[in-house]
Amino acid sequence: MSEAMPSRRAVIAGGVTGTAALAVAGYTPSAYADGHHRRPDRVRLTVLGTTDLHGNVFNWDYFKNAEYDDAAHNDIGLAKVATLIKALRRERRGEPVLTLDAGDTIQGTPLAYYYAKIDPITGGAAHPMARAMNEVGYDAAALGNHEFNYGLDTLRTFEEQLDFPLLGANAVDPATKRPAFQPYLIKHYRVGRGRTLKVGILGLTNPGIAIWDKANVEGKMEFPGLVEQAKKFVPDLKRRGCDLVVISAHSGAATSSSYGDALPYPENASSLLAAQVPGVDAILVGHAHVEIAQQYVENETTGQQVLLCEPSYWGRRLAVMDFVVEETRSRRGRGWRLVTATSQVLNSNAVAEDARVARAVREQHDTVVGYVNSPVGTSAAALSAARAVVEDVPIIDFVNYVQADAVKAGLTGTDAALPVLSIAAPFNRSASFPAGQVTIRDVAGLYIYDNTLLGVRVTGAEVKAYLEFSARYFKQLSGTGPFTMDQVTNAVTDLAPNGTPDYNFDSVAGLDAPLTYDIDISAAPGSRIVGLAYGGVPVTDAQQFVLAVNNYRQSGGGGFPAVSTAPVVYNRQNEIRQLLIDWVIANGTIDPAEFASVDWRLVSGGAPITVS
Fold first, then answer.
1. Residue 334, pLDDT score
2. In this prediction, what percent of the chain has a pLDDT beyond 70?
3. How far apart are the C-alpha atoms of 63 and 15, rounded to whole Å?
4. Could you say which of 109, 310, 532, 573 has the lowest number of CB atoms within 10 Å?
5. Judging by DSSP bridges, how do beta strands 97-101 and 140-142 pair with one another?
6. Which parts of 291-446 fold into alpha helices (H)?
7. What is the pTM of this model?
8. CA 68 to chain centre
9. What are φ and ψ of residue 213, in 5° steps?
10. Can you tell me the distance from the alpha carbon of 597 to that of 386, in angstroms, rounded to the nearest whole number?
11. Which residues contact 151 (CB under 8 A, 6 or more apart)?
């Protein structure tokens, strides 16, 4: 008797489970299931994969205090993905099933932040992601770059709380050059008739950690290239008798780097891994936050078609990778030959959350919901970041003011006499403060990253170069409009082939006097900053400033000029989001009259443009 498809009403009411969950998630049974490949000399291995969970257990937007939703009606969270994982394990009962993650687990939501900073796991708390992932029953997870955001003590504590290994073959000790984490895992599956299938799982992370989290890892850990380390460890896995080698790689498929040539290793190297390292059968891809249902890359040495799959991010999708192997016999004994490798991604938005995973984390989730909804002060006016990419808005001025004020208060010696500037980017265009009561959630929604604050000494020439680099964010257009935001913003560049993200558009503001400038989008990138002045006086090349920056920028993130090599004159490891919260608590009211001014504007040939 066939099982009826669930109705749309049932889906809307809260999701489905079991076999029905697979159906509504878009599951397509592989050819193996139709009996054609189900021969006694053949076995199917299933690899289930997630990546870039970023602290999401529930389908919840902590910044909106509501269920998560987006234009495509995606759902998020490990609790929903767990329903699909468990349904597939049931569907393939008796067959070998491997569950992996490709990194970026313990940062990204207030839930993750709370148990890193407010009630830290280093003080005895259990990490909610450890609880959830242990309940799911992962076999292994690769390290992501965001695993290092809270320092090595937090990461090591998280590692201790897991029932499975964190893999990182290219996170190495600087002295010995040996992996500081377990490099790989070998799984042995008994598959009948006295046979064993051996699967090697190699974990690789992102070399950019050396830049992005320099303050946490410098002198303690190094991060060589993924290809270079895979060439060392894949042969080792083969020598140890692995019939299949799967890599869990926190590195995108497109060969590109946000840090330009600051490192000799590409940031997104999964396609290079497939092409340049013989012996790899498949790669679970992470880091890039894209969906790759099935992609093949030909190995340059063997000609093998290596399977790549990336299941989006935040738990929106589950990767399902199927490998059919066939038994071989020779004078050296029995072995296995890969026959087919295919993959698909399942959508979590119509399934129910897994009750056991939800129960494991519910109390911590409720604690954090209460925390983020705590009032910290008031706002004298409604403030919004919606137009922050096309005009100077007070809510970004607020960030710049708090950052610059904190840096100025900490300067000493001759640096204390220098004018202080600050950079800020529109991380979240949907962020806003209501007129009236402001909560921690409101502030956290404005500054969604766990960046810390630094101050660097720069010249006027370097400030202008920095602004010119930032102005690459805009497309080159003539005329004064009206234009739509999409017509003006997110320009494609050599470093951003898919369009410059909002977080790489920085505006710069002064503390004690305004820094004013026009951005002429009719001009070519590199010659767009016009009329740069501080306190109404043109900025000279030799003039000196202190510039408040976040650690991501100062460590080279985004490839902005000067700041990564400029002298650091302030670094107290203060988290910027907490500085914003503390400022509101101390001052009571956010009044834009105290800090807001029109410092920059978009022009075309000197005339202001209109953006609708």
1. 85
2. 97
3. 23
4. 573
5. parallel
6. 355-372, 394-410, 440-446
7. 0.85
8. 18
9. -125, 40
10. 17
11. 216
